[in-house]
């Protein structure tokens, strides 16, 4: 698996507190956490039937292992995720303005070492 030279991942949190790791054109959901590692699964596991995974150390700064994706990276979609976050309007907060609020507080930058 090759990664672009930036090697920086971003974790976007949704309203429910879930995490999505965005790295090199792919998005991963937090799948499993152990004492020493975090396993992330491709968010396209159903739509694209992708079994791509990424395992990092528990801090999320070092890649331990990867499993290849069955689809191409989508850098444009990842940029939209970063801008809009994963915030979905709740039934009581369906205003498009609130839905697209600045989600800076929902981002963590992770320097990923490969």
TrEMBL record:
All residue ranges annotated as the FLYWCH-type domain in the record: 12-71
Keyword NADP: no
Pfam assignment, any one: FLYWCH
UniProt entry tagged with the keyword Metal-binding: yes
GO molecular function: zinc ion binding
Domain of life: Eukaryota
Keywords per UniProt: Metal-binding, Zinc, Zinc-finger
Identification of the protein by name: FLYWCH-type domain-containing protein
């Amino acid at each position: 698996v090759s990664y672009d030279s930036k090697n920086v991942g971003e974790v976007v949190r949704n309203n429910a507190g879930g995490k999505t790791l965005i790295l090199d054109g792919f998005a991963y959901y937090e799948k499993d956490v152990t004492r020493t590692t975090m396993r992330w699964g491709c968010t396209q596991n159903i739509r694209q039937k992708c079994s791509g995974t990424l395992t990092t150390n528990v801090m999320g700064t070092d890649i331990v292992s990867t499993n290849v994706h069955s689809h191409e990276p989508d850098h444009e979609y990842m940029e939209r995720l970063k801008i809009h976050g994963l915030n979905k309007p709740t039934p009581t907060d369906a205003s498009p303005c609130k839905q697209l609020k600045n989600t800076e507080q929902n981002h963590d930058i992770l320097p990923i070492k490969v």
